[in-house]
Amino acid sequence: MSQAKLGRSFFLISFLPAILYWYLEAHYPVRTALIGGVTLSLIELTFEYFWTKEVHALSKFNFLLIIVLGGLSLAANEGLWFKLQPFFTGIFMSAFMLYQLKKGDGLFLPLLEQMGRPLPPKFLLRSMELHVAIFLVAYGIFMGILALSASTSVWLFFKTAGFYLAFIIFGVVEFIYLKQRVKKLHYQKQVMQATWASRSLPKS
């Protein structure tokens, strides 16, 4: 299977536990919906291992989180804990990215180096990674609010398609910001070069 097709498969299958939970909650008791969501999460993990021969650390974390939150929801016979999974994932991912930035080069630089891609200036990568971390924690808090106050249908939309729409908007804004920052730095460099050139001219 090509990487593009595989990516689309994971794009779709990552929605399935939430979609199944939404459907079952609408037609069956909460306990049935929770069991269905947790079971499909296990199937999702198995699918990832089957196709890639490994399970990503984030997938393991999400699965364990769903198990814990699903268990709490089953004990309380209330789906709220299960729906808080995006909140905890956003908080964890943001904290991990900020920790990596504080410790060293962050996550983006090593990833690009492994992929053999051309590297932008390190300070731009760090700036972008910081903004992504802020976006994730903000979206996680937003999802937590939805879990507490909105319907499951609204929560499902923002957990799936809504997240990608929000990330696309974030990406466009981030691109414009970085482009303007590079343009400003380029202008400052030209000014400095012109200043040094004028100072090096012989005085009459």
Any overview of this molecule?
The protein has helices at residues 3-13, 16-27, 30-52, 57-76, 80-83, 85-103, 108-115, 122-149, 152-159, 161-200. The protein is mainly alpha-helical. It has one domain. The longest helix is centred in the C-terminal third of the chain and has 40 residues, at 161-200. The protein has 10 helices and no strands. The N and C termini lie far apart (72 Å).
The total domain count is 1
Query: Which outline best applies?
Result: elongated
Described by strand count, sense and barrel closure, the largest sheet is:
none
Amount of beta strand:
under 5%
Category by helix and strand content: mainly alpha
Mean pLDDT: 80
| End-to-end C-alpha gap | 72 Å
Give the low-confidence spans.
1-13
The total count of strands amounts to 0
Which radius of gyration do the C-alpha atoms yield? 22 Å
| SS element count, helices | 10
